[in-house]
Design a protein that fits this description.
This protein is of the alpha/beta class and about 375 residues long. The chain contains eight helices and 13 strands.
Length: about 375
């Protein structure tokens, strides 16, 4: 079924949840929410041709956790509008930096959005606030990836396990929402800004994710990873439906917060999220998941690993890294061991001086190497 425009009703049943006057019913709406929608509505109308499907899957009342993929810095506008048109007032988990922006922060606080204090001891507060909002019967919206996807083909990437902890700690429906289209208008990472002509922006909600097999079990790192992948697989399947393509069977993984690398089939599981330091708090502020950062040389071997039977910290006249400096000065993220920036060393797969870097995959090879099999 071809999705219809918002004004014509966009649910799969052909009806959107609207009142007799054609306006979604939300109960009492405060001043700052009205200010927010005074901005969101015209911006959405100028930039996008909105197409909604599956609105009937979002419950009309009661706590609900709405989970979406993140394809553009502009898609919070369409995601919020989608939840609003389903008759719910969205409460987003938003990074705390936004709350420090003049006027924007005032609107977010007044509209009841939840700040996420990333990388601080207050990170757990966002989890508590979200659980409280769900218990109060509100619609909490979250991007489990924590940021716009870095997957070269714009599929959902490996997500943070905070979403699993939130879902298992609150006995509410978890609704997967797929988004596609806003990245055609605003793509910050690729520096593509094409607001006109208007782009089609689509949202598709699916039935609640069945997590009954996981509830009541100890929340180990392995369980949280499995639940996260179950949820995001449902989101990815929705994205595939919107795109009319077959989805990949793996998720793209970011390594060290920069370039993506492949996870070896026999790679041990990531350490428990609770064991990570404060700096390991996820971008979404809800308990980070993932491997501890490692210093990796240009040939892919960990810095400090023995080579040819000789420990890496022993003098080796013949050991020369890509920049020709002694091996003891191998850089990490473009900075040598003595703290001096090293010209010509790759950062995110591209050397500082812009020269090609041998041994760093690019294009299709990088994509092929950067996916991790979902649990």
């Amino acid at each position: 079924m071809e999705p219809g425009p918002v004004g014509a009703g966009a649910g799969s049943s052909g009806k959107s949840r609207r009142g007799e006057c054609g306006v979604a019913r939300h109960g009492r709406v405060g001043f700052w929410l009205r200010v927010a929608w005074a901005v969101i509505y015209p911006v959405d109308s100028v930039l996008f041709k909105l197409r909604w499907r599956g609105l009937e899957h979002i419950p009309a009342t009661g706590g609900v956790l709405v989970v979406a993929n993140h394809v553009s810095h502009a898609d919070p506008l369409t995601f919020a509008r989608y939840v609003w048109d389903a008759g719910r007032v969205p409460r987003f988990l938003a990074k705390d930096e936004l709350f420090r922006i003049f006027f924007v922060g005032r609107v977010l606080r007044g509209a009841g959005q939840i700040p996420v204090h990333r990388g601080t001891s207050d990170a757990q507060a966002s989890l508590r606030d979200a659980i409280a909002a769900l218990a109060a019967g509100e619609a909490v919206c979250i991007y489990p990836e924590g940021t716009v996807t870095r997957d070269p083909d714009m599929w959902p990437m490996v997500s943070r396990t905070g979403i699993a902890r939130l879902a298992l700690s609150s006995d509410v429906p978890v609704i997967p929402v797929a988004q596609w289209g806003p990245q055609l208008a605003v793509d910050v990472y690729r520096k593509r800004y094409r607001p006109l002509p208007r782009k089609k922006a689509e949202c598709l909600a699916g039935p609640p994710v069945d997590l009954s097999a996981y509830r009541g079990r100890p929340q180990t790192a392995e369980l949280l990873r499995e639940v996260t992948d179950v949820i995001m697989t449902r989101v990815r399947d929705g994205v595939a439906e919107l795109r009319g393509e077959t989805p990949p069977t793996t998720f793209w993984r970011r390594s060290n917060g920069t370039a993506a690398t492949a996870a070896a089939p026999d790679e041990p599981p990531a350490p428990p999220a609770d064991s990570l330091p404060v700096g390991g708090v996820a971008a979404d502020g809800l308990l980070a998941e993932g491997l501890a950062a490692q210093a990796v040389a240009a040939d892919g071997a960990p810095v400090g690993a023995p080579a040819d039977g000789v420990p890496a910290d022993s003098p080796r006249p013949d050991a020369q890294p890509v920049d020709g400096l002694p091996s003891a000065g191998l850089p990490v993220d473009g900075v040598s061991a003595d703290g001096v920036p090293s010209a010509g060393l790759p950062v995110d797969g591209v050397p500082v001086d812009g020269a090609p870097t041998e041994g760093v995959p690019a294009g299709p090879e990088a994509e092929a190497s950067g996916r991790e099999t979902a649990s």
